[in-house]
Structures
1.
Amino acid sequence: MTAATQASQRAASGWLVLAFAGMAVLSLALATFLGVVDLPPSDVIAALAGHGSSEARSIILDIRLPRVVTGILAGIHFAVAGLLLQTITRNPLADPSLMGISQGAMLAVSGFLVFTVYVHDPGSNTLQALPLGWLPVIGTIGGMLAGGFIYAIAFRRDLGPLRITLCGIAVGAVLHAIGIGMIAGWGSARIEVLLEWFSGSLYARNWQHVVFLLPFTVAGLAILPLVRRPLALLRFEATVARSFGLSYRRQFSLALLIACVLAASAVGVVGPVVFVGLIVPHLARFIAGRRFDLVLPLTIALGAISVTLGDLVGRLLGQAEEIPIGVITAVCGVPVLVALLRRTA
Amino acid sequence: MLSCSGLSVSYGRRKALSDFSLSLAPGEIRALIGPNGSGKSTALQALAGLIRPAAGSAAIGDRAVASMSRREIARHLAFLPQQPVAPDEMTVEQLVRQGRFSHVGLFRSYGPRDDEAIRWALESTGLADFADRGLRELSGGERQRAWISAALAQEARILLLDEPTSFLDIGYQIEVLDLVYRLSRERGVGIVMAIHDLNQAMSICDRISLLEKGRLVFDGQAQALAESGLIEKVFRVEGRFVQLSPESAPHFDVHLSRWRAVTA
């Protein structure tokens, strides 16, 4: 390969990343300007600039914008976590909900809701008593615990990618069963909150959720350059990677930890938005082709785009009774997955 | 520069290697032979520090392999396992580039030194024109050469090869053996190679190690091995060594039962 073609390839790659970053910004704008309440674009701009009616300002600044930003952050979390898990387990189907992280968060949340309400006021049916503000923290802790538990089981014997995947599936299934059982047995008064949360939703997400997620996003993305080269080597079997000079165990653990933190915090805030973690990395790899350097930036951009647009579609289609983002990603995700499989097979 | 003594490895109950010793000088080619399951791969992996021995130790120079980080080891020693698998969509150049990880580490960008090493590794294996091809598009022989090329890009003084010629046709087999010879003589690389073909082993090596059920039963030159009568015993075959020409290594001629029937 000559230096000239290398340079032109690099330029083309740069433009591609820029184009997708532009699309992410565009989807952010689209999601801010469109919504259930029809606001003329001039009102939206005025509200963003701090003028306009107080109603428009409250819709844009307190409802739409925090919701969209939460979605962008969560989308990035799910997508990057999926990419990391698929890479280190060398399993193209790996995804936060396959590895038990989502189920851990789900069990923690349902346990928390059932438990606290009974402790607060046995027999109460008032939904105001539900301590919703705690859900992100509880969900994150639950997801992290499940991830840590799976890691510990896999670590005791041998840190094989297949073993860790199987552990994740098994533990996830058990946690899911316990969570469902808990809801069926004691959750009747809380079932609406639980259902909404379980289907993955951005409804009523506010700036507090953004403030909760942002440190995880910043820390997770900041550490990624450190694992860039190890990630390339983790795609080989352990013997080969170690022969090339990789401290396999340490790098595997670090990548798994980053994936767990990103996935658990996102599940804690928006619930398990399925398929984003599974499909976005595949889509990014498909677009990047052999330019492996592009996979990570494209995953980040596509994660943000897919959740933002998915939520917008859910809001517009459902109008007042909006469709949760998790349902949209699942419904749209399957055709995309099938299309990708047909292209790559 | 590479040595080990009293090396023992167990997989659960089974002892895969017991009391194995070896020393390798710069520019020396050492062949490792033995029947299937005799511990050749285990010995190589223990030398490369990839499995923890139950007893004994391996050392590069005077430093114990167990005390070195993976990156340090990889700068001194390149190991090519049997039938390695690469991610599907990788190109030859991307695979070979991984061989530079031990030099560039996590942060340092690839410099002219690294590009030079990659170019040399590709040229030595005749793959310069294949650099941008996907590994999946290659034939078995070309893929094996790509892996050897990645090991070469490490620019290590020690090279461990686990059956590098298996599954190659005779043309590629000889190509690999010639490359091994050039590396040892021109660059002073010390090479330990597990290999199944006895005659290739004896003609390429400076010294030879014979393993039987995890035990080292011979360590010396090919001529002495031919005279020891160990080959027939360890491999459970009948045959004899013949000298095809004065300067060539002894050649083992196996007796097949169909020929015995004819001569009897």
Note: Chain A has a mean pLDDT of 84.
2.
Amino acid sequence: MHDRESAERPLLGRSLAAAALVCACFAGPSWAGETVSSDAVRQNLYATCFVDDRVGWAVGDLGRIFRTDDATATWNVQSAGVKRPFVAAACVDADNAFIAGQAGQIARTSDAGATWTMLDSGVDRQLLSIAFADARTGIAVGDYGTILRTEDAGATWTRVPVPTETQLPEEYFGIVEPGDIVLYSVQWSSAEHVSIAGEFGVILVSNDGGRTFAPQSSGVDTTLFGIFFADDQRGWAVGMESVLLSTVDGGATWKRERIQTPPGFSLALYDLEVRGNRGWAVGNSGFLLTSDDAGVTWKLVQVPPQMGSYWFREVSLLASGKGFVVGSTGMVLTLDGAGFKANKDEL
Amino acid sequence: MIPQRWIEAYLRFLLTYKRTTIVVVTLMTAFFGFHLTNIKLHTDFFDFYPRQHEYIRFYNEFRRMFGSANIMSVILEVKDGDIYNPETLQKLDRITKYMVETKGVVPTQILSIAHPKVRSFSATGGTISIREIFYPTVPQTQADADRVRFAVYSNRGVRGVFVSNDDKAAVVHTGFWEEALDFRYLRERMNSLVEQEQDDRHEIYITGFPWLYTSVLQYANDLYYVFGATLIALSFLLYSYFRTWTGIWVPIFSGILSSIWGLGIAAALGFNLDPLVLVIPIFLTARALSHSVQSMDRYHEEYHRLRDKDKAIIVSYSHLFAPAIASIVTDGIGLLIVAVAPIPLIQKIAIFASFWVVSIFISVVSLHPIILAYIDPPPDAPHENASPPMSIGAATGIIAVVSAAALGVTFAGLVPGVVSGIAWSLVFAWYWLNYCERIYPWITNIVIQASEGWRRHAMIVLTVAMYLLLPIWGFTLKVGDMTPGAALLFPQHPYNVAYDKLNSKFLGASQLIVVIDTMRPNGIKEAGPLNVMEELADHMEGAKGAGGSITVLEIVKVLASLYRDGDPKWGIVPVNPRDIAELFYFFENAAAAGDLDRFMDSSARYGSVTTLFRDYSHNVIMSAIDRARDFGAEYEGEEVRFRYAGGLFGILAAVNEEVEGSYWISLGMIFGIVYWCLYLTYGTFFCSLILMIPVVLSQLAAEALMVWLSIDLNVNSLPVAAAGAGVGVDYGIYHFSRMVDTYDELGDLDAAVDYATATTGKAIIFTASTMMAGTVFWWFSELKFQAEMGFLLAALMLFNTFGGLVVVPAFVKVLRPSFFIKRHPRHYNAELAARLGLPPRQDL
């Protein structure tokens, strides 16, 4: 399905020219700086990160950046001066955050989003996930096996290769190289432990702060969209076809959980987090799972039928047991224990 | 002023060549009567469109590309549960197929989740599928229905647009070509659909512009009842006034003759009659009648004075000729001026209505002298009801009790309104026949007193105050439909119920289409224009009343996402032109031909951004288009241009703009013409201005009334409001003419004014009551529009009567125009002066 041809290279110049034109004609966003109520946001929200129970960011279509200081009751609309979507977010603290998205764009703020600075990532591939261990060290991953690492708060980024020994399904042998695969998720569980998930059930783990990665055997060859380690040993990965994998041995072995899905629905899980005993996994068509035993067992959350027309792309869970989920057309779920509240009237 | 000798010469000519005149009029009437048999009573949508307006030209250019703006929506609602069950979905499938087979539909513009044009995108086993929502077949089992639910939920642009947000209703949208609409056929066809598919568990609602006018048409038959009731009421009023059969048939004959001419010319010119504006012809018939009454009344008066039929005819009609011509010409030109609105519907009304009014010159002014010459003179003594059965106070008490009882039993639902109405009418008829001769002088006395002594100053203060206060409301009068839903039907009408349903359960029924022109083939498939389109769609979703936007981006994004395992993070417009081209190529190969028609033209030069709105009030339409234009001004350049404004909003905006522009122009011109005619009639600037005071005042009052009653100034009501403006001056004209005549006989201004009121006042009050009778039966129309217009015209006539009878005398008495003061009373009538108790004038 993917465009693997390197013949697209001649088109790159044209793409960049077109992109420049788009950026030029999109100058001067008029909406930046407004504060809007949560239910007034209509853009798809692709990623979110929260610093505490009240302060966080979400990013979405048309380059929109949303910051909240009141647990998503209102969003302050921010801008990095571009209209291309951001699809990944990582916040370090209430002032410092990084966002990444289409065409290799990465932006950072160190003043709570009052100003965003575009960084030079050195790539034009779509970035799909970004995570920081501390204010300076972070990793962004994306299309074509892109793994970018920074140690200077994003001033410079270096490429980390996908290990060549990464196993791909047999039918793709000779067609797809490990360096071609799409990497969807990156997460730090400690200053040294970093995990990445991607296409073909690929899981990569680093124990040296992301300088090198080693592949693990997930046991599935479907795409994994999300990965999360509570510590160096206990981890989970989620993906297409309701796949939910877990490990208790640092990824030496992965086990697939059985998820009972409602009839007629072909479901995918996009993201998962576990803090303390509480865990949440989110997916398409209003698909929500929760765990109250530190991710050992998961159960399907009953949602209003109307929620079936929304997808939830990312979850940010906090140590307090509270959390936030973002999704299609501005959807935000506020999580509290095993319960949730939606920001849309119809729900 | 027309020289008196010309008028008398014309009258003598008529009386000399009676037979020739009758033959000519009969031939003309036969000609118009022949054409009348071909009159078409129907609504033509193109009649609403101001063809030269930018938006209408845009609409006509893109109509074949993006479809008709006239969309009918059939909503299927379940009473319990949701639509995702085999029975409901099968019904929806049948309704969709039924619409496909309906005549006049735009084949590519039938959309529902049961129609293959609404697509479901999915990725299974590494393959992207683009299928019907009902794939693989119309649901037969609950499992099939569950699959439909998933397809509806997982495809953006389906829920909210084709399935209600609460899953309890689904809609079938059908576009109709304007030229192919056959309302009678549509009504029968849709009624039979409702009969087939509505049951205990399902309700069907139909709305949308084609259905609005279909619903209006169903009241066309009510016209006959209104005509009938009006005719009876007018005949009764005429009888009560003249107490002779001649008094009935002569004015009714004039009214019918003018109707044949007016409607006949409409038919001869190939005009169709919109049922909505029929309130105007009936109003005009009453107009012809009132001229007739004025002239008959004067003739009776002169006959009793002169005792010579021919002399009485000459004297009465030579006096009435000037005011009659003045009022006919002002009415006729006033109505013709309405044609400045470049909307065919209004122009057609203007032409035939002005001809109708001008025909009064034949039916009344020219024919009456001839008819009166043939028939017997009026009875010697006017009928006086010498012994009424009881005192007027007791009778008034009875009528008050009967009125209250009739209202009570009707509202309590004990007796049908028609029965209590007829019963009340009979009692009222008894009352009126016995006491009207006392009521007329009573009202006339009140009117005279209103301009006597200090009260004349109070009247002037009141007039000035009204001039200052009424515009406070009147100036807020907005063009277009102020009430969401239809201005034409009452809120509880099934059409409005359905319209509310569509707006409350779905994203909105009214569309605004903005077209992005890339000025090159395949331009719309590039990242730049697609991004502009996305930005515009987002911008438009922020407009007041907007429910959502629909663009080709829904398809681009969902395919882009499915290309990458369905991850929403990939559901964005690709940067790489090759990736975009691949998505389009894939869609065009996998989907059926024409599936992209809603979004872009076949060369991919133009792309559309359709925004759905929940109401179409003037403010919502204008602010939405302004919002689009603001965006266009910011983003227009080498890459893209913007074209405005399509969909229902474009059409309504064009109509509203033209209505608004032409309303003020035509009002200004009507006032100008009325003033000019007054000046030509009387040769005085100052008195003509005095006569204009009530005309303008009535217009201000009517506008304030429209605001208070939330009556919309739209394409339908503009000609009615403008017709009222021109017609109202007549009362002042007749009254003023009599003042001049009497002044010539008395040489005393106050006495002349009071005498004019006492004599003409009765006729004016009577005329006003005939005009009221011409509109009152519309008040009970099931059509809100006609009820409102009937009321508005009645109110306009009431204001004008008040102005002509009360305001004009007050101003004349206070300002004492030199037109009177310096005038030499040419026909001093000592006898009349003595009768009125005036000291004899030795100087005359």
Note: The mean pLDDT of chain B is 83.
